[in-house]
Write a structure and sequence with these properties.
globular; four-stranded antiparallel β-sheet; about 170 residues; Alpha-Beta Plaits; 5 helices; about 40% helix; alpha+beta
């Protein structure tokens, strides 16, 4: 069932294996009306949920292979499909959840236009309206500039592969 812990996460490659970037187009700054936890609870009510689970192992194998080979096109194709399918599950759950906004689609169309012009840019989303664009370092400035110029985008955030979160607190000892 959705939400059960199937095991611990494991790092596949060291942080320096592949320098990927994530340009996040923030289209909404307010908290979501429906939490991710509630979205997970509703997901099994979608008629597409079981089909998604049936394809998950094969898709994860493809992601691992793309990461291993540093194949941005293969990885990008999967992450875009994953983002859309996650939202398809949300929209078809009972009751339905609509995280996307018109601004979400505007960003996704801009990413497709960038890619059509030769820029390696691939859109994906978590449970919310904001769009993450996975790209190589050389494409990051152009993507951030293009998305930041969209009237629907409040601001962009640039991120990359790292060693993981760190606490930035003074020592208590």
């Amino acid at each position: 069932p959705c939400g059960e812990d199937k095991g611990a996460a494991a790092q596949l490659f060291p942080a320096d294996h592949w320098d990927l970037r994530d340009v996040i187009a923030v289209v909404e700054t307010e908290p979501k009306a429906v939490s991710s936890r509630e979205g997970h609870r509703r997901a099994p009510t979608s008629p597409f949920f079981d089909t998604r689970l049936d394809h998950l192992d094969r898709r994860l194998d493809t992601v691992r292979a793309a990461l291993r080979a540093r194949d941005i096109e293969q990885l990008g194709d999967i992450v875009e499909r994953e983002g859309v399918e996650l939202h398809l599950i949300a929209m078809s759950s009972t009751p339905p959840i609509y995280y996307w906004r018109p601004a979400t689609l505007a960003v996704m169309e801009a990413v497709r236009d960038l890619r059509d012009s030769g820029v390696a840019a691939y859109a994906t989303m978590d449970a919310g309206p904001n769009v993450h664009v996975i790209c190589p370092p050389d494409a990051e400035p152009q993507i951030a500039d293009r998305l930041g110029a969209l009237p629907e985008v409040h601001h962009t955030i640039r991120d990359g592969v790292g060693e993981g979160p760190t606490a930035d607190v003074p020592s208590l000892l």
